[in-house]
Amino acid sequence: MSPACSLLSPHAPRRILPLLLPLRLSSSAVSAPALAMPRRDGTDVSYSSSSSAAAEIAEPVRKMTLASQAPPAGAGPGSEPRPAQLWVPRGYTTSAGDGPGVASASTSTSARVTEERDGVSTEKLSRLFKSAPGFEVDNSTFTEAQIRATFYPKFENEKSDQETRTRMIEMVSHGLANLEVTLKHSGSLFMYAGHHGGAYAKNSFGNVYTAVGVFVLGRLFREAWGKEAPKMQAEFNDFLEKNRVSISMELVTAVLGDHGQRPKDDYAVVTSVTELGNGKPKFYSTPDVIAFCRKWRLPTNHVWLFSTRKSATSFFAAYDAICEEGTATPVCKALDEIADIAVPGSKDHVEVQGEILEGLVARIVPRQSSGQMEEVLKNFPQAPLDGGDSDLGPSLREICAANRSDEKQQIKSLLENVGASMCPDHSDWFGNGGLDAQSRNADKSVVTKFLQAHPADYATKKLQEMIRLMKQRHFSAAFKCYWNYHKIDSLSNDNLYYKMVIHVHNDSVFRRYQQEMRRNQGLWPLYRGFFVDVNLFKANNKKAAELAKDGDALLKNINGALDSNSSAVDGLADEDSNLMVKLKFLTYKLRTFLIRNGLSTLFKDGPTAYRAYYLRQMKNWGTSANKQRELSKMLDEWAVYFRRKYGNKPLSSSTYLSEAEPFLEQYAKRSPANQALIGAAGNLVQTENFLAVLDAERDEEGDLWADHGAAPSSPVSTSVDVVPKTEGLIVFFPGIPGCAKSALCKEILNTPGGLGDDRPLHNLMGDLIKGRYWQKVADERRKKPARITLADKNAPNEEVWKQIEDMCGSTKAAAVPVVPDSEGTDSNPFSLDALAVFMFRVLQRVNHPGNLDKASPNAGYVLLMFYHLYDGKSRREFENELYERFGSLVKMPLLKPDRAPLPGAVKAILDEGISLFRMHQSRHGRAEPSKGSYAKEWAQWEQRLRVTLFGNADHLNSIQVPFDYAVKEVLEQLKTIAKGDLKTPDTGKRKFGNIMFAAVRLTPPDILGLLHKVVEKDTAVNSFLNKIRLEDNLKKAHVTLAHKQGHGVAAVASYGIHQHQEVPVSFSALYYTDKMAALEAQLGAVNDEQINSRNEWPHATLWTAPGVAAKEANVLPQLASEGKAERVPIDPPITISGVVDFY
After folding, report:
1. Choosing a second label site near 890 at 20 to 30 A (CA), which of 76, 402, 512, 963?
2. Which of 1026, 872, 42 is nearest to 473 (CA)?
3. Which top-rank group of organisms is this from (predicted)?
């Protein structure tokens, strides 16, 4: 029975249905093959990797290509039947026909192909390339698209990190899933699909990044196989080609620029294996990835599985205990102790990368993954490295050092050194024949033609659907097409081959696309690292008719078979199957986010702006107050060091560790506390002589610009937002014209007593100030920094927010954003209802000082322009960023919650305006509407907008809250902030804290009540307690369970399962001296599980004299036995309740 069939079986327990979904972020991970698993009813279910029934329906469609395009016989993975083997995923064993001669066969085949290609005249290819733009799409035009390489979809939880963690623990506790944790190596994404399939970086191919990846992969084969490496490289390439498999790796090298630490060695770790032969990518489960890698002797990652509530809660507690100082050795040690299954990586992070660890990735996987992992470890032992002692040839660093002339020379040398058995074809890097790599760029019309042509199979239809939607939604992504040089010998005027790179420019696109998938569950996921082979071809009339007819019928069948069940396949209806959380360590973020990413701010804006930058980052992360103080001291010193040495000369972020690492090393040597803060320093790898020649406009993963400043999942607060009376306050308005900010400012100015204190109010109306408004605000604030400034101007973007932050720092002020309250849309913080109200208000204005009123011919356009300044941010992201930057947020009521829906005519006119605006912006940028090619359309739309809005005036008036109510609400919030009584709302994001110990928290009133019973019988105790004034001095008390330094991280984390649960604590004796006092404790049970303290003497310290540390109370029993302390028995023992918690 196939996995798909077993899911539908009436015997399959329904509650595990989501867990048989993909094991990674995608919903289509390859299930474990040929493993017999017992059912609850005692029968066995055999899980295999055979295709589902739906895939069988799709198979005829996949074959709907011209006969001339059919693959050669025997090329597919199913060319010969293979016997089932325990835990061998489909295609693990090589074809029966492959043998020792495969390497030479591959070489001869490559030579023959090269010879044939050389026979294709450069002139002919040049003519074909030039004529390709004239390729016309008609009824006989078809297209076939196949994904060639891809990585997991980028998935983000709808819940906060804390909610996600809680849900993960619940699922593990109820036996619904396991928690899987892997190391996050600090490198670049590299994908490989065979020497013909291609080598790819995150968003590019045919450059030094992919050449380095191919070289490192080839060298890994040499290390693993020794003399057999050429043969195994050829077999591996053959396997990937025949089975249409791609592998993804984390490529970690010292030649491609700095991350958190320069690796000691250049290496790669396999992170995913993907089958691409049947349309939608199928990602191997982690056990299958390990089996695959051990078959081919490729490096695997460190993996931990947590299958019980205790181990899962202990994992998160361990991370919380070590997140601010964790490095590779203690982190791996702690997780090895806690996990139910620990699989060491074949590359030791400390040996090849170093101690600085980027982070961990935790995700939900099916419950049966534990059994599958045990089977894999039993049947696929780690093979020895046959090439460990042999000469592997020049290293990556040696080759780069010897070829520093230019990028092409480095690429050429790398590919030649890796050998023909690994990379016989260099056309992706250097072109074909007389055509260089630059000529591979195809014209921009290819994408349009691809969308217009008939799809030849189901996969093509789904890819067309994806690209069409992204273009319609104006997602920030590029669809770049290049000639496929691997298909040069098959090119003709009616048969064109391309490679398409789907390049997502901004992470927000993944979030928005994910929302589209929730609405349309038949959509395929948007993958990271997305490369597609595209074939545009003409079919003769008969064949075209057959393809069109068969295609329509089969696509309908497939839609019914697959898309109707897409919620089960994609896992999107069940968010639990995609739960994942990334957990990074402060020692890594210190180097990358605080030092490297802060270089431009430090260089351009100086130390003051840099300090504001790093403090904001640490606040966003929720860094503990103690660590913030320690890091601030260190980073201020770094800023002085950097500026003194470099002055106005910028330091390249790709080599920043050349300066940062020696500084950190010297700083760490000063004290153990500094060493813990830095994590690890020293042993700097010098890269200046072998750094790859990189294009300055590409990032470390190809050609993707870094997407900085992505907001965390939810706002965080670490303290009450107090505005001292000696400081000023800036009230500003991230809104849209018509949001009533000027009217609100006028009401605030006219309010007796202002905001409730004696600071003067000052209003600056933007429409009355000529020139640079925010510079004027800054100038006025410098004159009187303690006053409250009402910045009466729309502040719609991050550039303005940054100016306000700088103003806060330079004039010693806090800032409070006031925003109209609105539900927002998927991609904008303001709903269409709000936009309609704003437009309606503006069009009722008369004689507006900014000339934006009913007399303005372009009023609707102006509001759409402001509306689109917020485009790409959901309401949650918008509010999060404001919270994180300014620590508070005031919401101005706007719309009634029980309002009627927006009338269809109003919604239609707004949708039309938004579409028109996007077309205008795409063609004319910021040009006025009257000066573009849509001038006529704009004029007509503006007139119809007025008619529509005034025709629905009753509705638009009825949905607004009364203005006086809105003013009252805003005033109350502002007064509360000014007094310092408002806490920033906490929407569930976990607050980072460096957990030091686990304890049972006790309440002082309970302790004092207990002691009152003791003093009734003992006057000496009464005199002692009165002397030390215990009632006044006892503010908190606890019984320590385990301390990180004394008992280890795992010991502290083991109490995570009981966090926030009550436990009975019995006290049997009071010990005291003139320097300290403590109660002897015996702990009870939680849910029938006894709670034991790791301390030899469990106790609650009540008091210590000045200068005496609380830990000194541990010696009280010994002092009592020596007659140096008093022991007062409590008989019978008195029991109170405490709560297990972390400190």
Report:
1. 512
2. 872
3. Eukaryota
Active site (annotated) includes residue 184: yes
| Rounded CA separation 1095/891 (Å) | 50
Q: Where are the alpha helices (DSSP H) in 583-624?
A: 586-589, 599-605, 607-621
Q: Give the integer Cα–Cα distance in Å for 219 and 188.
A: 17
- The residues that bridge with 763 in the sheet, in sequence order, are 790
Domains of the chain (ranges, CATH numbers): 140-150+438-561 (no CATH), 597-652+655-678 (no CATH), 728-822+874-893+961-988 (3.40.50.300), 831-869+896-959 (no CATH), 997-1142 (no CATH)
890 close to 819: Cβ distance less than 8 angstroms: yes
| Residues comprising the chain, all counted | 1143
**Can you read off the two tokens belonging to residue 485?**
């040089």
CB 222 within 8 A of CB 418: no
| CA–CA distances in Å: residue 935 to residues 865, 913, 924 | 16, 13, 11
- Determine contact, residues 213/204, Cβ cutoff 8 Å: no
d(CA 936, CA 646): 56
> How is residue 417 written in tokens?
């050194």
Active-site option among 154, 184, 461, 480:
184
Structure tokens at 735: 């809104």
Which strands make up the sheet holding 454-455, listed edge to edge? 454-455, 141-150, 530-538, 495-504, 477-483
583 phi/psi in degrees, rounded to 5: -125, 110
Q: Which contiguous run of DSSP H or E holds residue 1019?
A: helix 1019-1027
Per residue in 51-94, pLDDT (tens digit) is: 333 333 333 333 333 333 333 333 333 333 333 333 333 333 33
Q: Both tokens of residue 689?
A: 């002589």
Identify the three-state secondary structure at position 491: coil
Phi-psi region of 499 (alpha: psi -120 to 50; beta: other; left: phi over 0): beta
CA gyration radius for the chain? 33
Instruction: Please name the residues in contact with 1018: beta carbons below 8 A apart, sequence gap of 6 or more.
Output: 1128
CA dihedral of 902, 908, 912, 918, whole degrees rounded to 10? 40
Per DSSP bridges, beta strands 341-343 and 1099-1104 are unpaired
C-alpha dist (Å) from residue 1082 to 1037, 1057, 1095, 1096, 1120: 15, 20, 12, 12, 18
Structure tokens at 912: 């039309």
Cβ proximity of 338 and 306 under 8 Å: yes
Q: What is the bridge-based pairing of β-strands 454-455 and 141-150? A: parallel
pLDDT tens column, 554-577: 554 444 444 433 333 333 335 566
Beta pairing class for 1062-1072 and 1126-1142: antiparallel
Residue from 595, 560, 755 nearest 259 by CA: 595
Closest to 452 in 3D by CA, of 53, 65, 136, 693: 136
Q: Alpha helices of 902-1017 — where are they, by DSSP H? A: 904-924, 935-951, 953-958, 963-979, 1004-1015
| Per-residue tokens: 634 | 């260190």
SS3 267: strand
Model confidence pLDDT, tens digit, residues 1068-1120: 999 999 999 999 999 999 888 899 999 999 999 999 998 888 889 999 999 99
Return the residue matching tokens 């025997």.
74
How wide is the angle at C-alpha 215 spanned by C-alphas 209 and 220, nearest 5°?
125
Instruction: Output the six-digit token pair for 457.
Output: 């199979």
> Which residue stretches of 952-997 are H helix?
953-958, 963-979
Q: Residue 701, SS3? A: coil
Say if CB 959 and CB 893 are below 8 A apart: no
Sheet strands (E) in 294-386: 303-306, 341-343, 359-366
